Amino acid sequence: MTQKMVLVLIPTFIYTIEHQICNGIAEVFADQTIKLIFAPVQYLPESEAELDRCLWIHHQFRALEPSAIIGYGGGLGSVSGNRSYQKVLDIYAGMPIVNIGSALASVPSVLVDNFDGMYELMVNIIRRRPKARFLFISGPEGNVDSQLRQQALYRAFTESGRSSDEIEVLVGNYMSYGARTLLDSYLAAGAPAEVIVCANDLTAKGVLDSLKAHGVRCPEDCWVTGYDDFEYAAATHPGLTTVHFPAKALGARAAEQVLALFAGPSVRLKDRVLKGFPVFRGTTGNLSVQIRDYDQQMFEQGTHIHQRDHHTRTLELMRMLKRQVPLSELLANTKGLLAELEVAQLSLFRLTRDEDGSRYYTGMSLDGMDSTIRFAKPEIPSSYLDSSPLCFTLICPLEFDDEHFGYIVASCAPIAAKVIEAIGIQLSELLHAEVLLDTSENYRQVNELSARMASLGSLVSGVAHEINTPIGTAKLAASSFIDSTQALQAHITANRLTRTNFDTYLAESNEYAEIIFQSLNRAANLISNFKLVAVDQTAEKKRSFDLGDYVASVLVSLRHQLKGTQVVLTTDLASGIIVDTYPGAVAQVVTNLFMNALNHGFDGGALAGTIAVRLKKTQSGFEMSTQDNGKGALDDVLSQIFDPFFTTSRGKGGSGLGMHIVYNLVSQKLFWTIQVQSSDGQGFKAILKSAGLQQGPVTTKIEPIHL
Fold first, then answer.
1. Is 187:137 a contact under the CB 8 Å cutoff?
2. What is the DSSP string of 546-591?
3. In this structure, what DSSP letter does residue 139 have?
4. pLDDT at 455
5. Which of 434, 441, 373, 363 is nearest to 403 (CA)?
6. 215, HSE (Cβ side, Cα atoms, 13 Å)
């Protein structure tokens, strides 16, 4: 990149001061072949941990290798102070830097004289109200600008022959709501001061709102002054007397400093200080100037109409951004509306991670995503680098809470800068929601797999228990068979074999062989069924099978869960109902319904009762039910029973996934329907039906269930 590039760091485009600073910078560079990049990076936090988490975007900006940095430190560090701002500037060490506001020893700064303009205003107010009670509402504790403005008030007070100790002081936070809350408490304590001096205009606005709410008239009962000449200062009723903040001039002087550095890199710049001046309006009894010039009125009317239309389109854009559609489709859909908002171009560079942990950026424009291109560092499309005084080029970080997702680059008219910032906030929320959904889905899949493996483990345990009986019987019969054969051998050896001995041996041998065969056959069937169910649980292959026989096989492996309890399992399973579906899903559903009845209906077997599993043919297929006469469930439990992670056994091993898995398998894999019925203390029943009888889950309160 041969063209020089200047990176401008500001907190936000929401407020007029930042707009004016940027406009001043843009005007100075308008005739230069220098590209400006504006970056609204939000206010720096006080917490070290939070600050470290938001520095990622500055490392990306550093990779752009800008020719110079202009930072509005007075805004960026207004909450956290110069310490946090200095930590940001350290990232750009070695690069030419010019700061605006909040003097720093390490870099040249363009500053506002926070004393003289305030002093001039206070001298005028005190001269006109020499005996009035004064209240000063400061900015945040330790804020240097606020302290200078307070000192200006004190000097004007003492020079008038009064003591500064007479001035009441409340510590504010530069925010309108905070000032209103502060003054509400102050007014509740007694009569208000006759002059309220505010450290900035936002504070003054909150004060005016509080005075109005308490019936205190301004200026008749109380005068109010501010500082900054904020955008609404002239529009308040009455208009706010304040001190003009030379924002545009600050930006212009900073840009001139940068040009001086470019012209002579060895030049050592000095701090520049610009003075503000009082602006008198109605809050101190000054009559507003009436505009009578027709052309001026028409110009203002046209400006208001333009702003109204701009706001309307912005709201429409925000609604579009709220829609749940893929990002590429979302950007394409907003292209026309963005053009109406004077946004010429917009690209999104999304942080992507490979499976091996490597990170890179993928680019997406208003025309869709080019997934074949990877960017290891911030990328600005060459079409954005055409210098134009009519457009701002912005880079907005995409971040939400502690996560960052990339950044957007846009070219737009100055009036649309805050729209781009708002788009960045909305896209950050969308990307954050996508991450949450992906994480939730992965977590759900892991938990479902864990639940399935737990079910398979239960099958293994149940089959092992069931096999013990036939194998034990076969082993005992084989042992007896051996004893009988050895006795026969002894009779033969001793020549004492009789017909009776031989007939007895034949009878016993036949009996033992039958016992061994039947026992081993039962064990073989159990193993065969287990293998079938186990494979079904893991392979998830679709096949045709007899539903009744298959459910019976699953229940055999679950009977051991009832050992040592007073819970009885009864079955009534019709045969000949052939289904073509996923047997593993059927096994999981039957297992979860059985365990739900045992654990929730009978407290894991601590209570006595019956679990009944029934299957019958119907005209349109079948109906299968699992019913118990246990504790039952309240209506509020039924309404949430299929929700993931909802459980009434929190802290007792319940995951809250059992019935959620049942619902997902029934509705999305088996394509059956499920209905649950219950009432408190009167049992629980789950009814499964083949598709076509009823759509979707139903929760119903029923009369007591009798088995």
1. no
2. EHHHHHHHHHHHHGGGGTTSSEEEEEEE-S--EEEE-HHHHHHHHH
3. S
4. 55
5. 434
6. 2
Name the region of 493 (left: φ>0; alpha: ψ -120 to 50; beta: rest): alpha
Residue 396: exposure state from Cβ atoms within 10 A (0-12, 13-18, ≥19): buried
Nearest in space to 63 (alpha carbons), one of 97, 92, 98: 92
Q: State the DSSP H helix or E strand holding residue 400, giving kind and residue range, or none if neither.
A: strand 392-400
Pairing mode, strands 109-113 and 272-275 = parallel
Cite the DSSP H helix spans in 293-334: 294-321, 327-333
Rounded to 5°, angle at Cα 169 from 110 and 85: 30
What is d(CA 51, CA 44) in angstroms, rounded to the nearest whole number?
Answer: 7
**pLDDT beyond 50 at 705:** no
> How many residues are present in the chain?
707
Name the pTM for this structure.
0.58
Contacts of 474 (CB under 8 A, 6+ apart): 515, 516, 519, 520, 523
The letter for the amino acid at 160 is S
The more confidently predicted of residues 660 and 170 is 170
H helix or E strand, kind and range, residue 436? helix 417-493
Distance between alpha carbon 97 and the CA centroid of its chain, in Å?
Answer: 35
Sheet holding 168-171, edge to edge: 168-171, 134-138, 195-198, 223-225
Name the one residue in this structure whose structure tokens are 């699992």.
626
Two structure tokens written together for 480: 């007896």
Q: Determine phi and psi for 37, rounding to 5 degrees.
A: -120, 115
- Tell me if residue 118 falls in helix, strand or coil: helix
DSSP 53-94: HT-HHHHHHHHT--SEEEE-HHHHTTTT-HHHHHHHHHHTTT
**Closest listed residue to residue 455, CA positions, set 534, 393, 527:** 534
Neighbours of 197 (CB within 10 A): 28
- Strand 673-678 relative to strand 698-701, pairing: parallel
* pLDDT tens by residue, 402-414: 788 888 888 888 8
d(Cα 234, Cα 24) in Å, to the nearest integer? 21
Q: Which of 286, 235, 644 is nearest to 437 (CA)?
A: 644
Long-range (24+ apart) CB contacts under 8 A made by 371-377 are: 375/349, 377/60, 377/63, 377/64
